[in-house]
Amino acid sequence: MTSLIDRYVFTALRRVPEQQRADIDRELRASIADAVDARVGSGTDPDVAVEQALLELGDPDTLADRYAGRRTYLIGPELFGIWRRVMTMLFTLVLPIVVVALAGAEAVAGGGVGEVVGSAIGTVITVGAHMAFWTTAVFALLERLGQGRTELGLVWTPDRLPHYREGRRAGAQLVVDLVWITLLIAALVLQQFTFTEEPLLDPAGWTFWWPYLIVLMLLEIAYVVRVSRLAVRTHLVTAVNAVLALLAGVPLVWLAATDRLFNPDGLLGDPGVHPWATGSAIVLIVVITVWDIVDQGLRTQRSRKGEPAGLPGLAA
Questions:
Q1: Residue 121 CB partners (closer than 8 Å, separation 6+)
Q2: For 189-203, what is each residue's pLDDT tens digit?
Q3: How far, in Å, CA of 164 to CA of 170, rounded?
Q4: Using DSSP, how many helices (H) and how many strands (E) does the chain show?
Q5: I need a surface site. Which of 8, 212, 293, 308 has the fewest CB within 10 A?
Q6: Per residue in 120-157, pLDDT tens?
Q7: d(CA 203, CA 183)
Q8: How far apart are the C-alpha atoms of 262 and 251, rounded to whole Å?
Q9: Are 143 and 74 in contact (CB under 8 A)?
Q10: Please, is 104 exposed, middle or buried when counting C-beta atoms within 10 Å of its C-beta (0-12, 13-18, 19+)?
Q11: SS3 call for 201
């Protein structure tokens, strides 16, 4: 009858490369024998001593992985932080943009509310699953190929430490940004009912474009709140702002250029006013979009060069 020790050793060796088995067999049996002898010498029953020694060694499969030098994790600590940052960016930046774009395409194609919502939910599930799977698969492959921070050129140095600025300015800027965005949303809605007898903007835009802009402005609110909580701005902050600005500015310029921005029956739709209003709107939209992108880029640069400051919750 095969002994308990034999069963343990055989189980461990089956996961070890064949050329290593003889040496590991001798080393493992010697280690078990020493542990058993020590326990028997202290008065423990031999059968109990064997069981205790094997329990101390643990799962033979795990032990075999240690002998073979195999990694027993999908993504190790060296790359885990980078993987987490990439996943955070994908799910907080890329995925929302994809969802809004595809849902908007569904709306433009004439889909009803249910179809648009279904498209958005399906996109979140499908695209989110692919993002998570393929990103994790790439990092797991890098881990197995031995590509750590050094090989990827991501070795940490003190130069990578961010600069910090006092939070009071960020708080004041947050209030200004939130008030400004809220006023824009209110103006967009109220112009339909209160400013003139006829809306200033084309009522046909409510089938898609005006709700689209409201959604973008709500995303802008989430963005400025998130930025206000950062100790220092990053280039990702600039990139996200640029994407949001372009997602709003480009469609507005297109609407103005194709005579779909202003209500043809409204004040700005008058033949004598409309060309001037359209040209002015295009110039204004372009200037505001470019200014917003440049301004946020300059804020990022100033933030990264700012003076160190304490973080909330820490002593000064």
A1: none
A2: 877 776 557 788 888
A3: 11
A4: 11, 0
A5: 308
A6: 788 788 888 888 888 888 877 777 676 655 555 555 55
A7: 19
A8: 14
A9: yes
A10: buried
A11: strand
